[in-house]
Amino acid sequence: MNKKYLLGICLLSFGLTLFAEDGSKLWLRQASCEKASVCCSISSPTIAIAREELASLWRGKAVELQLFADEAHRKLGKEGYTIRTSDEKIVLGSTTEQGLLYAAYHLLRLQAEGADCTRLDIAEEPAFDVRVLNHWDNLDGTIERGYAGKSLWQWDELSDTVSARYQEYARANASVGINGTVLNNVNASVKILSSEYLEKVRVLADIFRPYGIKVYLSVNFASPMQLGGLSTADPLNEEVAEWWKKKVHEIYSLIPDFGGFLVKANSEGQPGPCDYGRTHAEGANMMARALKPYGGIVMWRAFVYSPSDADRAKQAYLEFKPLDGKFLDNVIVQVKNGPIDFQPREPYSPLFGAMPHTPLMAEFQVTQEYLGHSNHLAYLATMWKEFYRYVSPASLKGVAGVANIGDDTNWCGHDFAQANWYAYGRLAWNPLLSSEEIAKEWLAQTFTSDPKFVEPMTQVMMDSREAVVDYMMPLGLHHIFAWSHHYGPEPWCEVSGARADWLPSYYHQADKKGLGFDRSRSGSDAVSQYPDSLAHVFNSLELCPEEFLLWFHHVDWNHSLKSGRTLWDELCYKYQQGVDKVREFQKVWNQMKPYVDEERFQAVAKRLDIQANDAVWWKDACLEYFRTYSHMKYPEGVEAPVFKLKELKKVKLPISNYECPSADMLPRKNSSLE
Ligand code: BDP
After folding, report:
1. Which of 80, 440, 501, 608 can pair with 312 through a Cys bridge, CB separation 3.0 to 4.6 Å?
2. Domains plus CATH for the chain?
3. For ligand 1, is residue 145 a contact (CB within 6 Å)?
4. What is the pLDDT of residues 67-77, one digit of tens each?
């Protein structure tokens, strides 16, 4: 063992974090030299994990793990648990072994945060039964919208070679309460259902099982044709239904606790029941019937839109609301948080609340497709909490998060992107937690619990998503991203032959008069898809929250906002504010040097530098472009543009849908773009 490594272990065990780290341990960095006393009369793979975690990491009094069958524990459900301290020991209780494992991770989290563990009386249960991560991983190792390297799943090596990371992945998920994983991209290859791949999937399921993580697969609706050789995939065709039944039987013979299917159908070119004149309900129910005998579920996505006359923001509602009550009870309709597509800010999707007779789950995007990929620091808990201001958790059956995990050493590309994986899990368990407490927990475990670090960095995290909104798309602007890769600004983007609703001008509607998409009653009337009280607010130019102003209204450049400024001036101030905030984050981070290991300090500093430059790029691109319509001047306090619009229009990043651009590809100050 080399000296540096030894020193690191010693410092870590004293709770110091000055030793360079690579982020691979995520928030699970505790080390202990003592063996804690852990007592449990049960033995099973799950209990063995709980015991081992506690025995090697817990530094307090003796811990006992007990299965209980009393009413109080039964009320907490299959995954709930209690943690209670008496004079001589701490008792972890649950009706299941899985609950005990969650309790063990809870206790260790308290210790890592430096909490007082002397008098614990905790009872916990998850808010949702289904708490899954959706991996948009392709079988060739690429990850659609993945910015942290290649897929974790080494399909070519499986089943013979098993990476140590599979278990680390399961452990990290279990530590925050995630209980399911969809292994492959929603744009699914039929190959995943081949016997060869199912055997590989079995190996992963076996590793994840003791951690309480069920495996699910994204399936291609046309599998009976492409894989099974049938001439149709019509869900009402008996042979098709039979094919799915047999396939499902094969899956369960390998993976008895298989979770079920995730389906993207009739969306962005994927096949689906509508190809045969059938409804989404008919398609989903056919699969649900096959899964039902085994306890499996179908997660059927409502992300549908087609090049029709209807406002894209209205389409999922128009198609799915009439199907309310028509789905079998083991189908959950999976709805993206907003009506369009994971934008930096969207109002909630009006489908929530509109299908009272259908189980629904919310789909969030943890990976930052629209928030600066893994270059920008954007803590997303605040965004997800915003959703819960409008949507009651009690109305949901589950949540899905599009994962931001790849095979990068630190799993997520940006060290702070780990916080989004963590926060997604914590909010999936308990959506009532505040973004702030989650940020604090994560910072304390991932870096240091020193308040001189935790306090200022909590503030940075809390402000970070709003900063991104400000420098990318303030006041309700949306989807003015560069074509396809969605990294930088391209509000002017035109691609010959492209669908109108894939182009920014469809969304921003800039003209001489003003800016924004008129979704009021006199416009596309998307407001009417919301409950009356809210429709009334969104419909009114005066009452509409300004953060959604240009989402719901086409507003005159001279219209006066709450601040007393005109729309144009306010827009300029917002972009400037976004730029200023990122510069502030840089300053705060620079003061954190004494508390952070050199490796992660530099890595974060480098990315903040990119973010600060990108913020200026966004500001200049959007304001200079919109100025060609407003013909107005920059108000005082807003910096003159650094970049020239003519030059910015030439920027084409050489990246695909699964890459994060490197610094040298991006417009920088002092470059020829000025
Ligand atoms: C969009 C992504 C695309 C996904 C699609 C989806 O750009 O890559 O396939 O969502 O959710 O955000 O199906």
Report:
1. 501
2. 28-124 (3.30.379.10), 130-153+169-180+219-432 (3.20.20.80), 471-517+554-665 (3.90.1330.10)
3. yes
4. 999 999 999 99
